[in-house]
Amino acid sequence: MSHQVQRPPYAVDGESGGAAAAQLSRGFGGPVYLPGDAGYERERQAPYSDIDPRPAVVAMASDHADVQTAITTAREHGLPFSVQGTGHGTHAACNGGILLKTSEMASVLVDPDRQVARVGAGAVWEQVIAAAEPFGLAPLAGSHQSVGVAGYTLGGGVGWLGRKYGFAADSVLSAEVAGADGRLLKASADEHPDLFWALRGGGGNFGVVTSLEFRLYPVGRVYAGVAYFAAERAAETLARYRDWTADAPDELSTSVLLTRLPRAPEVPAAVRGRRVLAIQVMYAGEEEQARRALAPLWQAAGPALSETFRSSSFGAADMGGTGPAQVNLLDTLPDPVIDALVAAAARPDSPVLTAEIRHWGGAMGRPGPDAGPVGHRTVRFATVLDGWVPEVDEALRPYAAGRSFLNFLHDPARAETAYAPGDHRRLREVKRAYDPDNFFHLNYNIPPAPPRAR
Ligand SMILES: Cc1cc2nc3c(=O)[nH]c(=O)nc-3n(C[C@H](O)[C@H](O)[C@H](O)COP(=O)(O)OP(=O)(O)OC[C@H]3O[C@@H](n4cnc5c(N)ncnc54)[C@H](O)[C@@H]3O)c2cc1C
Q: Whole-model pTM?
């Protein structure tokens, strides 16, 4: 299933890096940082990855013209290029090249009548949530509001409203994109529809998105929080979870975590330092309905040791979740998988600190006819582990069939596993049309399809 990432023969040497930096410094609106600058050290990092990128230059774009300049400069000097909003999803180092940062392009405009937001490439979810909330609207943000809208949405985007409204990528209405030749294109259902399709799940492979327009949804109060239970009933609770989710309403998004909580003062005293089963919930509606729907699950889990549930606005709900890690997608939650997860979490020396089992389905499995390539939409569960245990891997293998979700991958070499084979082939064709020499390759790479025979 895996393929060799095609790396173009871009030269990487100090001289071309220096010349590119000098050229950028003359024609660039935003700051340009070189090794040794305080800004360089601050901006080059990728906070959720173990890579240590050493770009020749870090360029902070102030508008789409800067983005275009950075692309054409990298091309002119034969340098590697990569784009970064927050760095939360950066797993390929841009060594010796131009690292383009978009964090200063963070405009957010909300049109309450059309229920649409238009955001700059560097906006993070917190900013969109804050701008939409006064109108009773919410975006399809994920578990952490500091995540960037662009990287999250291009990679699919699964959030706490996903079962009700679908993947964030499915809500995109249009995008402005600086392509591999630096030209600015508009992608929508009517303009460059093949590019528009590919962008909605294909990641950062097709250009630098300079702005995105997407739907917002009327979301009033939500009932949300986490409840902690004794870990001893984990296996039977997960078995009940598997059956209970079959009839769970789309308003209800849940995940079960097998986790060890730190001995930290912010952790409730009843569960501090303990191994627990945690159930995270967001219900897009009223408390009473949520409690009724959750009752069978609570019966299986036993009395809660501690819980944080409350009604709040979507933005004030304090939801957690796992970032990029070991992800697998499943059509069901078979007993051998439950047993392996519970055993791995129970081992005192386990490399897995948290194993999350997340219920998918709902609107995520009902894409519109024009939906993008977000893959494996009909799965019911995702497992996300922050460590690797061979026994868990073995138990998952027959059921997971190697499928993954782009945003939760931490290994760029597995990008192909995020797509249905037909969609991956089509993505490669769109890549050949828009980026035939794989200029945008420092990402979860989709290599261009081979050139057409004459
Ligand atoms: C703490 C944490 C929680 C998370 N929770 C969720 C979650 O609930 N649901 C979910 O779906 N994902 C989640 N993720 C994964 C997250 O969506 C991805 O890591 C995503 O890539 C982050 O996007 P970013 O723009 O913040 O990161 P960046 O590192 O800035 O960008 C990641 C990649 O996105 C592409 N990219 C970014 N900006 C652009 C642009 N303007 N144009 C073209 N390509 C671009 C590039 O390929 C880049 O390498 C989480 C990640 C973390 C760290």
A: 0.95
